[in-house]
Design brief:
This protein has about 1300 residues and is an all-alpha fold. It is about 65% helix and about 0% strand. The strands form 2 sheets. It has a 3-stranded mixed β-sheet with strand order 2-1-3. The longest helix is centred in the middle third of the chain and has 56 residues. The two termini are about 45 Å apart. This is MYB binding protein 1a.
């Protein structure tokens, strides 16, 4: 980092430039002495993260404020000016902004000097060709920095120089494009009028053709027109931009402006300024029609179209109502509608969100002008594609309408629904729609249907949108309108019913009424779900459904004026009247929550009487009967009386009704059934619950796919082909066809019919037939052909019927699964609102059955939804519930039996994930049996105080048979620790031990027994893991007396130390050793913390005896990762016994191999290193080392060396001197010289022969023989040579760097070369 920073600091000013600028070269080196914090500011300023840049700029300014006159300010200016022209384009604006803030903070810095420094640094006359572009951008960003500082407008001299510089930059259009001209316009827009008058003649030519040649000059002209019109008129004379001669030029300029902002996707400022000028000169219609619609749109240029759209959105707040009508019915809005329809493809750019922002801003800004709001909203709603408006039915901008405008808009929608005025719409058809010659697509009835469908959905969306401010009268008006046109027709208008006075210009079709009916029930859901009421309601706060029912009853009573689309029968009318009578009776019990739920259900089913009269009529009768019985106030009957009674209890009937409502594909009915069931679930009987469970029981709702056999078409075609061969080839072919038919696996009935037809036509003769040689005549062949054709036609119909039946069964399966998902809502309500009900216990096994079946066949998304919902209810709402049943005195034996059954089923599962659900169910039942109301949540560990209290008297207040339950879990635990593929897991038993420590105490001997013995290594490892986690639990210790606890710890110690460590041959055995050591560490830690009196000397001696074998296995490299882990665990255990791990042994075990290592182990040690031929050589150091390998004579001149070499030589000399004096040399950071392998020696010899030099060996007898020949008096250069060779070997990555033999030879060599 320091080298990089020094390079960056040295970059801005070269030595020559520093001399020219007057700064001495020494100052540049002095700046490098600044703090690292100061230099890092300039690195952070150029980073892409905005927060980092801003923070670095603020810190730089704070730093400079403390030293305003020091060298730091000069250096900072120089660095920022240099950054304006760096090669990274993203860094230039960062330095420009930092320079602007610096100039803004320190106003004593003259701007002209900064401008001169920029010109001097990036001289456009002397800059190299490759640096022209960065130099141009440096000038541009420099001027922008002066402008952004806010001081340029006040400094006349700097302003004039900046303007001249920008005019020079405009000549380099290839690099800068229009950026200098845009910067010039931005600067001149801020200057005072007096200054602008002086500058204007210098920047704007007196030629109108130049003004209309580019968007920048036109924008400058419009700026002068706005600020100094007199000066502009004196310069150019009277100019009419919207004349016939100038309009084509304006179109071209706007097209260029649209192309320039194509990537930015924004409105050019010149377009909006032209619009304002047109409005100012009262020439807006001419500008809009001739420049935009007849000019720019005709170019068929997509950016030009988007410019028109943006100009339309931006013009909305500037236009009057009359001008809005002109704009919203022209070609621009027509073109915008086509874009909305054709841009629905995913890869197309969509302008709709941008237009929504424009419209939302306009509506929010003119809430005081409802007429203009209404005009814009009606105009956008009138853009239709063959009758269907292009804006969505749920439009977010509607929320900005004022109440008055919203009321008028709803009235316009209602009138358009009743009397569609197609001529007032801006309707269009796309090119593909125009190519379609189908006459039915262009009739008015189709357009009316599409328009009415959109209008009714828009009305409903306005009511459903909670962000729209609407009055109660408006909501009631929309609801009555939808209800009336869903089920009623007008016979004779009356003033008492305003809906009858609304005439229809086009009669309502049946499909239109279906759409209105569906929208009405969607609206009813929004009004009725969860008994939502409007705060300003009257009539005693009645719900919306009740008010609509009253309106419906009024319509039924005016049968002279109104009639239903489907007339009521006498029975249906009687059911309606009885429903109203029941509603009045329920008002007397309005304080009861149950009565409110019944009222809600009765109202919704009553309204459904118009949609499905037959079903709703029967449901109404049953609901009314249930309501009457539930409100009688009689005590709840027992189960025996309910069974003996001829009439089922009311709650069972109501559950059947709710199940029938859930079968309907209506989200409203689903919510109603859920809320009603929440009020009656406290009265639920076992029979009523069984009705719900029958739906979820897969045994009764299983698929019947296996009973359907569908024949493939390929079999049928092959039979037909063989039969054709019979008809074409005579009796031989017929015999072959008969054999094929007999051999082929086809329907037996079809085979018999085919054989009968062939035999009747004598096409299938026997072997002994006398007419074998005879051929069939033409008439016989024709008759046979006709019979075969009819036979195959019947077979084809049968096959198609079977296919249809299978498809029907598949659809029924989908509906059944969807019905089960809906019924789970009732189960969720029951376990949520009645968790202490004993009926909840009956849900366990049915839910587990659903989970198990869904796990097996969860292929489709619907099956997965069913599985996820069932698992969520079972886990979160049932097993983890805070409350549970406390009254199980009559079900104790059944619950114990259920625990045994569930544990056995969990042990027999094929999947551990399914077994987990069964095991959790047993834990829930144990919690219920324990019956402790102060019990903690199942998944939370209770505190030690509570655990100790429960441990002292585990069965004092519970009905849990501990002995029986212990036997159940003992068998499951034994199976888990002996069975090869057991679905049970360690976390399951840990959860059991944590929640029920008393059971853990009884089950621990089984776990201790399986730590060793005939079990497999994997099971033994699991036993060690389970025992380790169990001993670490704080809830277990209070269950034992002190002596019992010591005895248990002693047994665990004896079991763990029975096996010898370091002898693992397989992965499972290695895992067993690791688990055993982890268990031993846990036991030793327990002994240490609880200060137990156990003799550990035997264990200490045993572990000390294992150290050599563990160290040998680690050094051999067998199971490298496991061996090192085992070795670490071993020393952790020894630490608890008071033996510390020796540091030297740890270092030697990792770095220094033994001398008696075999070649095989050396090869194994080299595994993972690159071969020598693949390593990158450092040529220069190597050559230098080869040259230095020759020991120099005292009179030989040494080449100049760098500082590093001198330091290394000093260290080598000091080392040699210490050896002469008989003192041990100090440890050096350079590694010892490696001992080369034979291959490396041969390779280095070849390299030295090729280079013409005799390379000396770093070890061995050859070096010892050669050194005396070239020895000299004085200091020997050999230590330095050895250190260089050692560094070279370290750079090469030689695998034998750390051999101890080479180190000893190096010491011998050093001693041998001393005089």
């Amino acid at each position: 980092m320091a080298e990089m920073e020094s390079q960056d600091v040295a970059e801005p000013v070269s030595p020559g430039e520093a001399t020219k600028s007057g700064a001495p070269p020494a100052d540049r080196h002095g700046l490098l002495q600044h703090s690292r914090e100061f230099l890092d500011f300039f690195w952070d300023i150029a980073k892409p993260e905005q927060e980092t840049r801003l923070e670095a700029t603020e810190k730089l300014l704070e730093y400079l404020r403390t030293r305003p006159k020091g060298s730091e300010m000069k250096y900072a200016l120089m660095r920022l000016i240099t950054g304006l022209g760096v090669g990274r384009e993203t860094a230039r604006p960062c330095y420009s902004l930092a320079l602007a803030q610096l100039l803004q903070s320190f106003e004593d810095i003259p701007l002209c000097s900064i401008l001169e420094q920029i010109k001097e640094k990036y001289n456009l006359q002397k800059v190299k060709k490759a640096m022209v572009r960065p130099a141009l951008f440096a000038h541009l960003f420099g001027v922008l920095a002066l402008f952004q500082s806010g001081r340029l407008v006040k400094d006349q001299e700097a302003l004039m120089k900046s303007v001249k510089l920008l005019q020079v930059l405009t000549q380099h259009h290839n690099h800068l494009q229009e950026q200098p001209q845009k910067a010039l316009v931005d600067i001149l827009s801020e200057v005072p009028e007096a200054t602008l008058k002086d500058i204007l003649p210098k920047v704007l030519k007196s030629d109108l053709g130049v003004v209309l040649s580019s968007p920048e000059y036109l924008e400058l002209f419009l700026l002068a027109q706005q600020k100094v019109p007199a000066k502009l008129e004196k310069l150019l004379g009277s100019v009419d931009l919207f004349s016939d001669e100038n309009i084509p030029r304006l179109v071209n300029v706007l097209k260029m402006a649209a192309a320039s902002v194509k990537k930015e996707r924004k409105l050019p400022a010149v377009a909006l300024d032209l619009l304002r000028l047109a409005l100012q000169e009262n020439k807006f219609p001419r500008f809009w029609n001739e420049v935009l619609e007849q000019g720019l749109l005709k170019k068929q240029f997509l950016p030009a179209s988007f410019l028109c759209f943006r100009l339309l959105g931006a013009a909305l707040p500037l236009l009057s109502k009359k001008q809005l009508q002109l704009v919203m019915r022209g070609d621009v809005i027509h073109h915008y509608g086509e874009h909305l329809v054709t841009s629905k493809a995913p890869d197309r750019f969509k302008f709709a969100p941008e237009m929504d922002e424009y419209v939302g801003t306009f509506l929010e800004g003119c809430k005081t002008d409802p007429e203009r709001q209404l005009a814009v909203l009606v105009a956008f709603s009138s853009i239709t594609n063959q009758g269907h408006p292009v804006v969505p039915t749920f439009w977010r901008v509607v929320q900005f309408l004022s109440p008055c405008a919203l009321k008028d808009y709803v009235a316009w929608l209602r009138d358009m629904f009743l009397q569609p005025n197609l001529d007032s719409l801006v309707d269009f058809s796309t090119s593909n729609q125009k190519k379609n010659q189908d006459a039915s697509l262009h009739v008015p009835e189709r357009a009316v249907f599409r328009l009415r469908k959109w209008i009714i959905l828009r009305l409903v969306s306005i009511v459903e949108n909670s962000q729209v401010e609407k009055e109660e009268a408006l909501v009631e008006e929309v609801a009555r309108f939808c209800l009336f046109h869903s089920f009623f027709e007008t016979k004779k208008p009356t003033s008492q019913i305003p809906e009858t006075e609304q005439r229809l210009s086009f009669p309502l079709e049946s499909r239109t009424r279906e759409v209105v009916c569906s929208a009405f029930f969607s609206l009813l859901q929004a009004l009725s779900t969860q008994f939502r009421q409007v705060p300003g309601q009257t009539q005693g706060g009645q719900p919306w459904t009740y008010r609509l029912v009253q309106f419906t009853d009024m319509l039924l009573n005016h049968n002279r004026n109104v009639t239903t689309t489907t007339p009521f029968t006498a029975q249906q009318r009687q059911a309606w009247d009885r429903m109203l009578q029941t509603l009045k009776e329920l008002e007397a019990h309005s304080t009861e929550v149950k009565a409110t739920a019944f009222q809600h259900l009765l109202l919704l089913v009553g309204i459904h009487l118009f949609k499905s009269p037959a079903e709703s009529c029967d449901l109404l009768g049953d609901i009314q009967t249930c309501i009457e019985k539930s409100l009688e106030g009689k005590p709840r009957r027992t189960r025996s009386k309910a069974v003996d009674s001829q009439e089922p209890p009311w709650v069972e009937v109501l559950v059947e009704i709710l199940l029938a409502l859930l079968a309907q594909p209506s989200h409203l009915m689903r919510q109603v059934a859920r809320s009603v069931f929440g009020h009656i679930c406290s009265h639920l009987t076992p029979r009523a619950l069984q009705l719900i469970l029958d739906v979820l029981n897969p045994d009764k709702s299983q698929d019947e796919d296996d009973n359907v056999v569908v024949m493939d078409d390929s079999d049928d075609k092959q039979v037909m082909m063989k039969t054709a061969q019979v008809l074409a080839g005579g009796q031989g072919g017929a015999a072959a066809a008969g054999r094929h038919v007999r051999d082929k696996d086809v329907d037996q009935g079809f085979r018999e019919q085919l054989m009968a037809v062939l035999q009747a036509g004598k096409a299938l003769g026997g072997v002994d037939s006398e007419d074998e040689e005879e051929e069939l005549g033409d008439e016989a062949m024709m008759a046979l052909d006709q019979n075969l054709a009819s036979l195959f036609a019947e077979q084809k119909l049968r096959i198609q019927a079977k296919k249809d039946e299978k498809s029907k069964l598949q659809k029924e399966k989908v509906l059944r699964r969807d019905f089960q998902i809906r019924v789970l809502d009732l189960v969720e309500v029951l376990v949520t609102k009645q968790p202490e009900n004993s009926l909840v216990l009956e849900l366990l096994e049915p839910l587990l059955t659903v989970i198990r079946r869904s796990m097996r066949t969860s292929s489709s998304k619907q099956e997965q939804d069913l599985l996820h919902k069932t698992a969520r209810i079972f886990t979160h709402h049932l097993c983890r519930a805070r409350h549970y049943c406390h009254d199980v005195s009559n079900h104790v034996e059944a619950l114990h039996t259920q625990v045994e059954r569930l544990v056995q089923q969990a042990s027999r599962q094929a999947d551990s994930s399914v077994a987990l659900y069964y095991f959790n169910a047993t834990l829930y039942l144990l919690r219920v049996l324990k019956g402790n109301p102060a019990d903690a949540l199942p998944l939370k560990t209770p505190k030690k105080q509570k655990a100790s209290a429960k441990a002292k008297a585990p069965q004092a207040t519970s009905c849990l048979d501990l002995k029986r339950v212990t036997m159940v879990y003992s068998s499951a635990l034994s199976s888990f620790l002996t069975k090869r593929n057991s679905p049970l897991t360690v976390p399951m038993f840990l959860s059991l031990f944590c929640r029920h420590p008393v059971l853990c105490k009884s089950l621990l001997p089984i776990v201790v027994q399986h730590v060793t013995g005939p079990a497999r290594p994997r099971q033994q490892a699991q036993a060690c893991l389970l025992l380790q986690k169990a001993l670490s639990m704080g809830e277990l210790r209070p269950c034992f007396e002190h002596s019992e606890w010591e005895q248990l710890i002693g047994q665990v110690l004896a079991k763990v130390t029975e096996r010898t460590l370091g002898k693992a041959q397989t992965k499972s055995e290695q895992q067993r050793e690791l688990s055993s050591l982890e268990l031993l560490i846990t036991v030793l830690k327990t002994i240490h913390l609880q200060k137990l009196t156990l003799d550990l000397t035997t264990i200490l001696g045993l572990l000390q005896g294992l150290q050599p074998s563990l160290q040998q296995s680690l050094q051999q490299g067998a199971h490298l990762a496991g061996s090192s882990r085992l070795y670490d665990l071993y020393w952790q255990a020894m630490k608890f016994l008071g033996v510390q791990r020796p540091k030297s042994e740890k270092k030697d075990a990792k770095k220094i191999p033994s001398d008696t290592q075999s070649p095989v182990s050396m090869k194994r040690k080299k595994k993972g290193f690159l071969p020598e031929t693949k390593k990158r050589k450092k040529r220069k150091p190597e050559d230098a080392t080869e040259q230095d390998a020759k020991p120099a004579t005292p009179g030989e001149k040494q080449p100049p060396s760098s500082g590093k070499k001198k330091r290394h030589r000093r260290k080598a000399a000091a080392s040699a001197q210490s050896q002469v004096n008989g003192k041990p040399a100090a440890k050096s950071s350079a590694p010892s010289s490696p001992a080369k392998t034979p291959k490396l020696r041969k390779k280095h010899q070849k390299l030295s022969q090729m280079n013409g030099t005799a390379r000396t060996e770093s070890a061995g007898k050859k070096l010892q023989k050669s050194l005396p020949k070239k020895g000299a008096s004085g200091k020997s250069p050999q230590p330095t040579l050895l250190q260089k060779k050692a560094r070279l070997s370290l750079a090469d990555g030689s695998p034998s760097l750390l051999r101890s033999g080479a180190k000893r030879k190096k010491v011998q060599l050093k001693k041998g070369v001393q005089p």
